[in-house]
Design brief:
Strand content: under 5%
Helix content: 40-55%
Distance between the termini: 71 Å
Largest sheet: none
Order of helices and strands: HH
Radius of gyration: 26 Å
Shape: elongated
Structural class: mainly alpha
Length: about 70
């Protein structure tokens, strides 16, 4: 037979543990204050030949060319 009050106690305990873990994971520590070491550049609808470093003479892309060098 299922004991509803006992299930409710276990459920509340589980929810409390999850909330505490979430709150602890959101705090900032010394490792969170460092600058990121990953930069993600997303370009939409750009092909290989659209950059001037790849031989395109119609478009000038000096900033992206400096990243590629």
């Amino acid at each position: 037979m299922i004991n509803i009050p006992q299930i409710r106690i276990h459920l509340l305990f589980t929810i409390k543990v999850i909330v505490i873990l979430l709150l602890l994971s959101c705090r900032e520590g010394p490792e969170m204050m460092t600058k990121p070491n990953v930069v993600l550049i997303v370009s939409d609808d750009q092909g290989w030949g659209d950059l001037s470093i790849n031989g395109n003479s119609n478009l000038k892309t000096p900033n992206i060319d400096r990243l590629a060098k």
